[in-house]
């Protein structure tokens, strides 16, 4: 890495001078926000992007900018993927495996946040089922397409600091449900999945990392009222003031997607493998109050990661 990037770096700045011609990159969640921006900048630098989305009609409209700016042989192909349905997940993964073309990077970008209590098609709590278990099955089913030198980038969140995973009650059958408590569990799971995937695949040259994109106003917050958002921002501001760190500021979408592309194609694989990144750098381990900055120890704990993997296999009825 000859250049240093930070919280305000954009996708275009991170990929300046980078030629991705010949690279094939999968991005989930390309119907809005970070997924569209991630696909746009990758295709603009020559990558063949496979964009996955639940609503293909919405994704086709949203990704017109990706097709318009594709250059140097870059392009976009859309596939249907509903992470809240394992039947959809398996069908999408099986089609990719049957096609046989390998991937250089897989960016697990799609997700939901702070939803009311609900269940996926398979009976899992909505956020854990969609954000973690859907990607867990999808990525593991296409792992054979990830060639040596390839990477998995899981989009996690500083929200992982709200809560560790609860492997005794993943579906909130006995513990009280809170939208952000559930979100925290799912985002911690995203980090732990990257940790264990990295451990399992690094010997064959495939690495995995988790990233926090930053606070961005996208469709992800559609389940939050303006009052909810104001309260969240206020709590973060108070935590920052108490910790003596700069005030919270929302990132733009190009700034938010920058860490994903940095970790996926710019940073050395050994520098980010099995770790959690934010603001285009590897985050420090922080065990304290507040939700901004750093990664909680439980999210990188190898034993926790192995236990989550085993529990996830049990829940989806499939071993990887």
Structural notes for this entry:
Helices cover 42% and strands 14% of the residues. It contains 13 helices and 8 strands. It has an 8-stranded mixed beta sheet with strand order 3-2-1-4-5-6-7-8, sandwiched between helices. It is globular, with a radius of gyration of 18 Å.
Topology:
Layout: H1 11-14, E1 24-28, H2 33-44, E2 48-53, H3 56-62, H4 64-69, E3 75-80, H5 86-99, E4 103-108, H6 126-141, E5 146-155, H7 179-201, E6 207-212, H8 226-243, H9 253-256, H10 258-266, H11 269-272, E7 276-278, E8 281-282, H12 297-300, H13 302-316
Parallel strand pairs: 1-2, 1-4, 2-3, 4-5, 5-6, 6-7
Antiparallel strand pairs: 7-8
Helix pairs in contact: 5-6, 6-7, 7-13
């Amino acid at each position: 890495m000859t250049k240093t990037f930070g919280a305000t770096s954009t996708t275009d700045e991170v990929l300046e001078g980078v030629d991705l011609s010949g690279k094939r990159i999968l991005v989930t969640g390309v119907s809005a926000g970070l997924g569209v921006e991630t696909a746009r900048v990758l295709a603009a630098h020559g990558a063949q992007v496979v964009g996955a989305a639940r609503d293909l009609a919405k994704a086709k409209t949203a990704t017109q900018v990706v097709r318009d700016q594709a250059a140097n042989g870059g392009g976009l192909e859309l596939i249907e993927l509903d992470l809240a349905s394992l039947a959809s997940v398996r069908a999408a993964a099986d089609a990719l495996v049957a096609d046989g073309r390998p991937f250089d990077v897989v960016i697990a970008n799609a997700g939901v946040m702070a939803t009311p209590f609900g269940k996926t098609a398979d009976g899992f709590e909505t956020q854990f089922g969609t954000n973690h278990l859907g990607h867990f099955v999808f990525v593991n089913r296409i792992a054979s397409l990830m060639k040596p030198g390839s990477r998995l980038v899981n989009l996690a969140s500083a929200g992982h600091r709200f809560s560790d995973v609860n492997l005794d009650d993943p579906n909130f059958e006995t513990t009280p449900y809170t939208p952000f408590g559930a979100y925290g569990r799912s985002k911690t799971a995203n980090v732990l999945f990257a940790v264990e995937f990295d451990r399992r695949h690094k010997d064959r040259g495939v690495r995995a990392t988790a990233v926090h994109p930053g606070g961005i106003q996208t469709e992800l917050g559609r389940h939050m009222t303006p009052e909810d958002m104001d309260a969240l921002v206020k709590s973060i501001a108070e935590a920052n003031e108490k910790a003596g760190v700069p005030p919270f500021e929302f990132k733009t979408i190009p700034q938010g997607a920058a860490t994903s592309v940095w970790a996926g194609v710019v940073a050395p694989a050994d520098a980010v493998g099995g770790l959690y990144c934010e603001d285009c750098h590897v985050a420090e381990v922080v065990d304290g109050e507040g939700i901004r900055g750093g990664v909680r120890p439980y999210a990188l704990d190898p034993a926790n990661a192995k236990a989550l993997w085993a529990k996830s296999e049990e829940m989806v009825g499939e071993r990887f």
